[in-house]
Amino acid sequence: MQRRFIDYLVITLKGLAMGAADAVPGVSGGTIAFISGIYEELISTISNINISLFKTLFKKGFKAFWIASNGSFITALLSGIIISYVSFMRLAKYLLENEPILIWSFFFGLILASIYFVGKQITKWNLAAIIGLVFGAIIAYYLTTIPSLSNNSHSYFLFFAGALAICAMILPGISGSYILVILGAYKTLSDALHDFDFKKIIIFASGAIIGLLSFSHLLKWLFKHYHNLTLAILTGFIFGSLGKVWPWKKTLTWQLDSKGVKTPFLEKSISPFSFEGDNLLVFAITMMIIGFLTIFILEKIGSKKA
Fold first, then answer.
1. pTM of the entire structure?
2. Which of the two residues, 132 and 145, has the higher pLDDT score?
């Protein structure tokens, strides 16, 4: 596929959007990749990384290796993801602590629009597709109801968390960051990025790389043999995740972290009119609309050949 510099710039911008989404517990960068039209190319590119690819490097040289690995595409995308994820995680942490209703409203609108755009790619609705949709929704909803574990910074645990979270990050509807929250690794990773703790970052990244290479092969196989059913399940994943990003919540139980800071442990979604304090309803609806329109823009960009 022949691409110009501007095409790779657009791919980097999509990577920035993916990284920003993945930094927020409850939002999936895979959803952004799907809507922006690069999801299947991303999965195919990752799954093609194997021993034979490196044989190409030694036998035919770097240029042949670069072309076979779709190097320009993955470099442009990863550059955006990494820059955005590292920088936006700090901003996300601030917004979640200080303006939770507004940031959750934005992502609620974004995910709501995603359901439509992913679902419309299902070419045939039959019993299998309906079952797949319901199954995906139930699994995603169940994941959003699991209370988070206490923080754990053990090396083996961080490796496992990286492998599991990266699988969620490339699945539309399932948030890798939320998986980290459930496992109790989100704060550990956030602190490591903030403090530039390279040992923990490398351990986590190593697990993520192995998990990504393994899981991408399964996804590629599913798209090849069960394309319609896979789309239905992914649509269900996105639908089931809506509860996690509902802006108005009531905290049922609290917990203290290692520094003695009180944080929510178990929450439930409530009506904005039952919310204690300022529900920011007008601003929240505005942010939902902005999030909703953001997906339309990404979909329009993704519909073009990039």
1. 0.68
2. 132
